[in-house]
Structures are given as C-alpha cells and as structure tokens.
C-alpha cells in the first residue's frame, strides 16, 4: 500500500513517495492500476513469484485508513501482511528503512491507517525525504515537489525503495533490513 495524495497536482510531492514506489512495482509486474470499490486504485499480480495486491488510496493522505481497511477486508489481508510505503521526515532523502509496528511519528496518513485497522503492527517501508529547511512547516515541506537536486536521484532512490518492498515480501523483514539498512 503506497500512501500519497490523489491527483496530478500532488504527483511530484514528497508526500507522494509511497505512490511513486508502488508505481515502480506495478511497472515491474506489468500491471495497470484500476479502480476498486474500496476507494483505491489496485494492481493484482505476482512480484518475484509472490501474489500481491498493490494499492493507492483515492482519498487524501489524512484519510488513508478507510481505503486501507476496505482493501484488507476485501482481500482478506491480515495486518501483519500489509506493507505500507510512506515518506519519512526523520530519514535523509533517499534513505530507506524498514520496520514492523511503531508509532506514527506525526504522520497523519499512518495515524489514519492505524486508527482504521485498530493496530499499528503492520510492516512499513519508509522513504526518507529529509527535514524541512530552517523553520519551514513540515506539512508545507512534504506538500512541495522534490527539489531539482533531489529529482536527479529520485528515480534511482524510488527504485531502491521498490527493491526494499520486493525483498520484504519475498525474504522477510530481517533479511530486507540487513540489506537496506547496511548503507
């Protein structure tokens, strides 16, 4: 499940890193997103031989929980098998960190997902977007597009995050952490 905001005006925002990652995964699977009744866009298929459902909620980030819950219920996905991909302010740009469970760290999308699922014990792939410069408001920062300097490396870093999701799904959390936390 990639988190982000729907619509072209948000497409390049830091807050849409989760959408960017699942877009790469869908491309690798040769799939196209289609509308689902759970208020999300979905692609069903195989990723490195493992059956997966990739999704992007059509709701705004702060209301992601409803579509996530709807998808988990429809596809009968237990919380521990859900993978949420999202932007993370406390990680430098492009760095990828994986974890299972934990708090929302002020991320309203995660807060909504946790509230809707009644659990915070879902795996996460966190894509670093760095801290806002100076005294800039964090909410304003994540709703801005990546800088020109960041865009030079964005495709590479989003691809690495997609690799991390693939490793998590196929090899498990600890194995994926050993690879992606090493650098």
Automatic annotation (TrEMBL):
Active-site residues from the entry: 15
Listed GO MF terms: peptidyl-tRNA hydrolase activity; tRNA binding
Binding site for tRNA: 10, 60, 62, 108
EC code(s) of this entry: 3.1.1.29
Keyword tRNA-binding annotated: yes
Site annotation Discriminates between blocked and unblocked aminoacyl-tRNA: residues: 5
Enzyme class: hydrolase
Magnesium listed as a keyword: no
Self-association and partners: Monomer.
Similarity-based family: Belongs to the PTH family.
PANTHER family according to UniProt: PEPTIDYL-TRNA HYDROLASE
Name used for this protein in its record: Peptidyl-tRNA hydrolase
Protein source organism: Actinomadura spongiicola
Lineage: Bacteria, Bacillati, Actinomycetota, Actinomycetes, Streptosporangiales
Gene of this entry: pth
